[in-house]
Amino acid sequence: MNIFKVNRKFNLGDLIISLLIIVGGGFIVGLFIKPYVPIYKTLNKLFFFPPGYVFPIVWTILYILMAIAFYRILQISKLGKKTYSSLTLFYIQLIFNFLWSFIFFNFRLYGIAFIEAVILLILVFITTKKFFKVDKIAGWLMVPYVFWLTYASVLSYFVWILNEI
């Protein structure tokens, strides 16, 4: 279902709220973890680890895509389609997403961060699958997030293995 065909009324306010929740939330988390981010340079890493500057760029793009996907599902819910489980899962995965940074950077609990990353990946995979059932475009907007989380989970695993004392 394409919401722009079903409901031609674009809701800028809802899109802005979606962006503020997701992109703004990521920005706020970034502010809280910023003092701890230099730890990334000191970690033992393998050749396929990206430089630190890549992460904020990738996450900003992913958060924008997630916000648009969320907005689309939200608009469809306003049309009366049942999206409660999709939206609930989205909120839960977003909480896990934001928590990972604190676990990894602030507390340096790399093993727990890896486990949390795997749980997050599972939640996002299920969320994406549910989004596809409601709106194909929203589902596709989540796919880069699934791929990045798969890669990030691998990175998290190797940080744990290479840096635990």
Continuous helix count: 7
Largest sheet: none
The secondary-structure element order is: HHHHHHH
Secondary-structure content class: mainly alpha
Please provide the count of β strands.
Answer: 0
Radius of gyration: 17 Å
Which residues sit in consecutive blocks of at least 5 with pLDDT less than 50? none
User: Helical content, roughly?
Assistant: over 70%
What would the average pLDDT be, to the nearest integer?
A: 94
Quote the beta fraction.
Answer: under 5%
Give the overall shape: elongated
Distance between the termini: 51 Å
What does this entry look like structurally?
The model has no long low-confidence stretch (mean pLDDT 94). This protein has helices at 3-6, 12-33, 39-42, 54-78, 84-106, 110-134, 136-163. 79% of the residues lie in helices and 0% in strands. The N and C termini lie far apart (51 Å). With 165 residues, the chain is mainly α. Helix 4 (54-78) packs antiparallel against helix 5 and helix 6 (110-134) runs antiparallel to helix 7. It is built from 7 helices and no strands.
Q: TL;DR?
A:
This is Tryptophan-rich sensory protein. The protein has 165 residues and is mainly alpha-helical.
Provide the descriptors you would attach to this structure in a database record:
single chain, mainly alpha, 165 residues
Write the layout of secondary structure elements.
Layout: H1 3-6, H2 12-33, H3 39-42, H4 54-78, H5 84-106, H6 110-134, H7 136-163
